[in-house]
Write a structure and sequence with these properties.
Blueprint: H1 2-7, H2 10-30, E1 38-50, E2 56-59, E3 64-72, E4 84-88, E5 96-105, E6 110-115, E7 118-138, E8 145-152, E9 155-161, H3 162-165, E10 170-176, E11 182-188, E12 191-193, E13 204-206, E14 210-217, E15 227-228
Parallel strand pairs: 1-4, 7-10, 8-15
Antiparallel strand pairs: 1-3, 2-7, 3-6, 4-5, 5-7, 7-9, 8-14, 9-13, 10-12, 11-14
Length: 229
């Protein structure tokens, strides 16, 4: 008799037993202290500096940090702007290269991993110099020669860290040769360049535009050398 009762609707009875066991596990295990489900979230955040002394500049190659945090499953995700990766430079007193630990400024989170954990930082003094602006003529000059040029203002102020400024050989504007005699009058951007002629991009130039006026004439045997004013 008992065996017949067990065999009767066996599938439904097995399903009911499974549901009962699942419900018991949920109420007794999931709600138990220390057994709350967690998940990992990975964020990519910019690396910033803090505490750098006035008149100094900090350069470093790694610009982003990847951090993985552990969160309760019912807490929702963390936004990237809630986490900061900071290089604390408040104790840096002299120029040089040093390895600085990356510190996280974030809500009360459990950090699983952080990369990079530290960054090589080059600290240098900020300086400025007054440099005359020169003209670099470019292109084919077979059809014209330069009769005169004028630059206003004739000099610029360059600003940057000491190491970068030491590489500056000239501050120039590039002026193309026209194919026929004509007058030129335009605002051009002066750019610092190194001894090899390559432009240096990490240097501030003020003013960032200068007025360049030039007179191009047809080449003649008696043409005078270019005049600069």
């Amino acid at each position: 008799m008992l065996l017949n009762l067990l065999r009767n609707n066996f599938g439904l009875k097995a399903l009911a037993l499974g549901l009962a066991l699942a419900a018991w596990a949920y109420f007794h295990l999931a709600a138990a202290p220390g057994l709350t489900a967690h998940f990992d979230q990975t964020l990519t955040v910019p690396i910033v500096t803090s505490g750098l002394r006035s008149g100094y500049d900090a350069q470093f190659e790694e610009k982003l940090a990847t951090v993985t945090v552990e969160l309760p499953r019912n807490s929702g995700v963390i936004k990237a702007d809630q986490v900061q990766a900071v290089l604390d430079l408040s104790d840096v007193m002299d120029p040089g290269v040093r390895n600085v630990a990356v510190k996280l400024v974030a809500p009360d989170l459990t950090v699983r991993s952080l990369s990079p954990a530290s960054v090589n930082v080059t600290v240098d003094r900020l300086e400025e110099r007054v440099v005359p602006v020169t003209v670099q003529y470019v292109g084919d000059h077979g059809g014209t020669v330069v009769d005169s040029t004028a630059i206003d203002p004739p000099q610029t102020t360059i600003r940057g860290n000491a190491a970068d400024l030491a590489r500056v050989s000239t501050v120039r504007v590039q002026l193309p040769f026209p194919s026929r005699a004509q007058a030129f009058d335009a605002m051009l951007r002066p750019a610092p360049a190194g001894a090899d002629g390559a432009e240096l991009t990490d240097i501030e130039v003020s003013p960032n535009l200068v007025r360049v006026r030039a007179k191009f004439i047809a080449p003649t045997a008696s043409a005078a050398s270019p005049k600069h004013t």
